[in-house]
Amino acid sequence: MSGRSNSRKSGPKPGAAVWDNTKQFLIAIVLALVIKTSVVEAYKIPSSSMEDTLLIGDFLLANKFVYGARIPLTNLRLPAIHDPHRGDVVIFIYPGDGVTKYIKRCIGVPGDTVEVRDTVVLVNGISQTRPSHTKFIDMRGHEMGNVSMPTLDGRIVLRDHYGPVIVPAGHYFMMGDNRDNSYDSRGWGTVGRDAILGEAMVVHWSWYEPAKDDSTFARLGSPRVSITDPLSVPRLFWFNAVHFMEKVRWERLFRPIS
């Protein structure tokens, strides 16, 4: 006579599925943080100093690995593929406060002699070809040749007649492509190698927000958000949804930065 077993297969313990999902979520967060801090990071362009290479409202991806990414939670760096080259568009920490992230073009590397003569940049005595989207907006200043720029140590330099200066070892000379509207190494000096974060690669998104003096502001300027107006957020959302096709700079999406 056959007996009937009363044993039962044990099912998953209570909470096991929750813990498994939690582990996967934590792993995803850790991987995202590692990628963000060590490989690729997204940045938004807040100012016009790199026009017309980069525009206000551009969102870009930067390669942090190429210059030697920092290892998370340490002050150590991975080996660099190469140091910044002349012409690279570089993200770095502003020397003036040690916190703010800036983006400029590398003009001079360690040991270079950099000078500006009537807006023309010379490196080691050789005139440099201007990037294709370099911008000048103050033609009167060029004619006068005496537009001043303050320095961090209180001196005054001439914006369009600067130097010559020798770039110190371990430092880099940076300038914005919007040469008349860029506070850069002409004013605050060179950037130390440790302050350099990555090289700009591609514009992955671009959102047009016109300035108040722009002819399109009345039609495309987003309504302001106010903490005293609870309807301001849904009003902004609705406005941007209605004008979405006009406000996205479609021609700039996935545009390589050079």
Keyword list:
single chain; about 260 residues; alpha+beta; Umud Fragment, subunit A; eight-stranded antiparallel beta sheet; four-stranded antiparallel beta sheet; 6 helices; about 25% strand; globular
Our count of helices gives 6
**What number is the mean pLDDT?**
85
The major β-sheet equals: 8 strands, antiparallel
Structural class: alpha+beta
Q: State the low-pLDDT regions, or none.
A: none
CATH homology superfamily of the domain at 33-206: Umud Fragment, subunit A
Estimated radius of gyration: 25 Å
| Count of DSSP strands | 14
The CATH class label of the domain at 33-206 is: Mainly Beta
Descriptive report:
The chain is α+β, with helices and mostly antiparallel strands. The protein is built from six helices and 14 strands. The chain has a domain at 33-206: Umud Fragment, subunit A, CATH 2.10.109. The strands form three sheets. Strands 1, 2, 3, 4, 11, 12, 13 and 14 form an eight-stranded antiparallel β-sheet that branches. Strands 7-6-5-10 form a four-stranded antiparallel β-sheet, with no helix packed on it. It has a two-stranded antiparallel ribbon with strand order 8-9. Strand 3 (89-93) and strand 4 (101-108) form a beta hairpin.
Structure summarized in a few sentences:
The chain is of the alpha+beta class and 258 residues long. The protein has a domain of 174 residues: Umud Fragment, subunit A, CATH 2.10.109. Helices cover 20% and strands 26% of the residues.
